[in-house]
Amino acid sequence: MIPYPVQRDMVSSDRLIADVVGVVIEKVLMEISVTAHNKMVEILGNYNMTFSDCYKKPHIVNYALKEIFGNGYLSTVQKIRNELMGVDEDHRIDMFIALVSE
């Protein structure tokens, strides 16, 4: 049981952000190519992840994007960042993008 409604809201907020990040990553990859999307699904599957898990495991997203796009992965990160610009959640999105960009 969560003792304070604020904590429950924070948990809901984290889940919502995770879902939004997952949808955005999936959308960006589909816009690039079905092959890129399918490769990401394969890599995430190897880690027992779905797109919604990407927010909590940015290091795996970073690895996957490098595997898929090589040195050009940062342009994909920029597309993801642009799509997430409207989501303002206490700099958590900026932190996620920074970790994915390493």
State the helicity in percent bands. Answer: over 70%
What is the rounded Rg? 14 Å
Beta fraction:
under 5%
Ends apart, CA distance between termini: 37 Å
Tally of alpha and pi helices = 5
Structurally, the number of domains stands at 1
Shape: globular
Q: Are there runs of 5+ residues with pLDDT below 50, and where?
A: 1-8
Briefly note the structural class of the backbone. Answer: mainly alpha
Major sheet details: none
Q: Can you write the helix and strand succession as a string?
A: HHHHH
Estimate the mean pLDDT confidence. 88
- Quaternary state of this entry equals single chain
| Number of separate strands | 0
Walkthrough of the structure:
This protein is mostly helical. Helix 1 (5-32) packs across helix 4 and helix 2 packs across helix 3. The relative contact order is 0.14. It has one domain (5-100). It has helices at residues 5-32, 34-46, 58-69, 73-84, 92-100. The protein contains five helices and no strands.
